[in-house]
Amino acid sequence: MTYRVCFVCTGNICRSPMAESVFRARVEDAGLDRLVEVDSAGTGDWHEGETADPRAQSVLEEHGYALDHTARHFDSSWFARLDRVIALDSGHLKALRRLAPTAEDAAKVRLLRSFDPAADDDLDVPDPYYGGRDGFEECLEMVEEASTGLLSAVREDVEGQMA
After folding, report:
1. Is the whole-model pTM more than 0.70?
2. Active site residues
């Protein structure tokens, strides 16, 4: 049985593909890549069909992450096949929970930074799109920090499914 995680931001060209790339690498390093599938999407369709923002791509590559990405729009029908839906900010969290067909589906949605025990009360990953390269570096740092806790939670879920 495959465990599925989908990261969601606004346009699916910056934050969510960065999270997808980092988390996929963590899953592979943990030897869970045969059990866990990782992807991403956007709450809107503004960039559907486009590649990741070149700044996101270059920051990822400079830090050793691979990304082959085409933006897509999150569809509520996906909830049925997803185990976790990871929102990058509170606006995405609200939008995704409104889209969820059932209370069980809404419960699958969590903020990424909620998995980072060192995160402060602001659990949003700021949108780097309208800023400079520093925002993409900051985004990557936040994603990396939260990915450790998310991986622990996913590993626990996967082991629970196998028991």
Report:
1. yes
2. 9, 15, 127
